[in-house]
Amino acid sequence: MEDIRKTLFYEQKNGYDLIDTRERTLVEDYAADYMRFLDTSRTEREAVANAIDEAEEYGFVPFEPGMELKPGMKIYQCNRGKALMLAVIGTESLANGAVIAGAHVDCPRIDLKQNPLYEEDELAYFKTHYYGGIKKTQWVAIPLELHGVVALKNGESVEVIIGRNQGEPRFVITDLLPHLAADQMKKTMAEGITGEGLNILIGSIPYADDGKDKVKLAVMSLLNDSYGITEEDFLSAELCAVPAFDVTEIGFDRSLIGGYGHDDRSCAYAELKAIFTVENPRRTCVCILADKEEIGSNGVTGMQSAAFDCFMEDLCAIQQVPLRRCYENSFCLSADVCNAYDPNFPEVSEKCNDAKINYGMGICKFTGSRGKYNTSDATAELVAEVRRIFSDRQVIWQMAELGKVDQGGGGTIAMYMANRNINTIDAGVPVLSMHAPFEVVSKFDCYMTYKGVLAAFQS
Ligand code: MN
Ligand code: MN
Please, which of 312, 328, 414, 419 could form a disulfide with 334 given CB 3.0 to 4.6 Å? Predict the structure, then answer.
């Protein structure tokens, strides 16, 4: 009976029961590299800049349309400093398709409005407009740091990073003390903190002069000294506040990683490491770091942009292959995180199908909501191919689904890739506290996601 059970049942094991000490070392080494990347990649621009720096060390060169492409060549193209495409040219023609991995490097955050600076009752603030799906109550009373660029009329750009390094000042959105929160506590969590209430405290000392808005003037004068900007320059700025938490190991056993932006920089890094590792692939490997996923993948730097098609079409043109032929034979891992089953909230999960921490890379056949609405539901045949690729290369993985049916839902870039007639499936790292200022993933699952993307590239 035990034998029959073993043969017939699909049973999963904790990943740590399946790897040896040699692979445990690889998990730790990979996690250390990822933590360094995450610590210095707080915005999509910083993630892209760091990715390019590392790519150039691995021999990637900027792609020029019409350049000669030899098998094994490593190229990249940056889209407006906010998205990135890298490729390693395969020995086979692009007519046989490419192997694509696509992650996003934008994360939920607090963007500054275009007219952000104001003074209220002798305190200076920034007005904000949050970006992506956040629970607003999680973003008050935590330290924030400021990142972004101020584009000047003269064509120059000023980069701003303040609060990341020890000793630099940080910022905060204040919350109401419990002593006076009787009314607030009766509100729902969605209403307790409002969007217009997310004002960032940035200063309190008045300018030594008469007149109004003296604290605002003092802050503006500091900004002018440091960055040479005036208030009007905010109009053409992209500045955002992100949590000022360091990336850190979690747990007595240090098996987990806490930090801001695991969704989806944990998958972005897995893809990068994989494309840096792959040598002379059969099919051309493409790695995408996309922007704007958290707000629907729209815009010039989002996955719905033709920027990706342009890049692929330029590659195909060099080999005289129609783009549509390449697409129909391509395979895409939409590398995005999934939710990890959380024992603190079992009521939203369905244990047979939710991904679990330390069970490996999570594969989502579909995402969406309300009866699989708004998703690319990968074909059974594609899932079978993924099973084969992963089992050939000892990738530990699990099926994943976003909680109970009708509990909520979400999307990824998968459907925008699939709509291009590219066979696409979601795959990524299971996350606890997803979209919170401090998210948690397991080192093991991060490493297996890298191994999974590499397996796809090498297939
Ligand atoms: Mn995501
Ligand atoms: Mn997300």
Answer: 414
